[in-house]
Write a structure and sequence with these properties.
Histidine-containing Protein, Chain: A, five-stranded parallel sheet, alpha/beta, Rossmann fold, three-stranded mixed sheet, 2 domains, 10 strands
């Protein structure tokens, strides 16, 4: 949204317990406000444009298997790239994000309204039965599986309980609310004066957050596991890397990894070679 040639923007994140019609509410809100809707398909499309499609496809809203979590950096790489996609598309402004941890990623932005759609287990099971054409036993298993997966995903990604009410500005129970009435409540809340606008400073911050995830995932994928290597995002296109490294080869390879990231134009390499034992540091 442009006002006087300056960009202002708003975000709404909508999260749901499976079987509560949260996706329909999110789409209805996007239509009413003329906001861009980012569900799974839309985020996958954006990931494809950024070259991250295969990575993001492998990370659903569930935590990685125990062995994979302990013996592979891949889940962390997938997560970083998913988060980078969310930050990148958020720079376009005026958007509805459905799930994928968006309520936590955008939690610090005053222009974001965070909504949780919930409901009783019985009503959720009934809705799943109708919409999926399955029996009660299968619907119950689907509901419980979704709840388990989302709990695991948020523990892995953020070490948070995603059902913590303090993460949300508005909690809707669709046991008695229709999609239309729930969507109207979200629209009214989004239009309230208490929801602040985000300006150009927020766009820059989103760019830096996106680049941070790209750097983190690229270093992990390149096998950089030195715990004494650190980096800071100086601007949306520049990074400073510092700390201690074992060898000149490692120092050069880290710089090459960073220079290979599309959006980085400047790398400041302040890594210092340490010739003694790293264990005593």
């Amino acid at each position: 949204m442009l006002k006087g040639g300056v960009q202002f923007m708003y975000f709404i994140t909508i999260s749901e317990l499976f079987g509560t019609d949260g996706d329909k509410i999110a789409q209805e809100v996007a239509k009413s406000l003329n906001y861009t809707y980012y569900g799974e398909d839309e985020l996958l499309k954006a990931a494809g444009q950024m070259g991250f499609l295969s990575d993001v496809q492998k990370l659903d809203e569930k935590g990685p298997a125990l062995l994979e979590r302990f013996f592979s950096e891949k889940p962390r790489v997938y997560l970083d790239r998913l988060q980078s996609v969310i930050f990148e598309v958020a720079k376009e402004g005026d958007a509805i994000f459905f799930g994928k941890g968006s309520q936590l990623l955008l939690n610090s932005f005053g222009c974001a309204l965070h909504v949780l759609v919930t409901g009783s287990p019985e009503k959720r099971i009934d809705r799943i039965m109708r919409q999926k054409g399955v029996g009660r036993e299968i619907a119950k298993k689907m509901m419980e599986g979704s709840d388990h997966d989302k709990k695991g995903f948020f523990r892995f990604a953020f070490n948070q309980d995603w059902l913590n009410p303090h993460l949300y500005d508005l909690i809707l129970n669709t046991d008695k609310l229709s999609v239309e009435s729930a969507a109207k409540m979200v629209v009214d809340a989004a239009r309230s004066e208490e929801i602040k606008t985000c300006g150009t400073d927020s766009v820059r911050l989103l760019g830096k957050l996106s680049l941070h995830r790209k750097v983190e995932s690229s270093l992990l994928e390149a096998g950089v596991t030195n715990q004494h290597v650190f980096f800071t995002i100086e601007d949306a296109d520049s990074v400073r890397v510092y700390g201690l490294t074992y060898s000149l080869e490692e120092k050069k390879s880290i710089e090459e990894v960073l220079k290979g990231i599309k959006d980085i134009k400047k790398v400041t390499n302040e890594l210092v070679m340490y010739k003694g034992s790293m264990g005593g540091i």
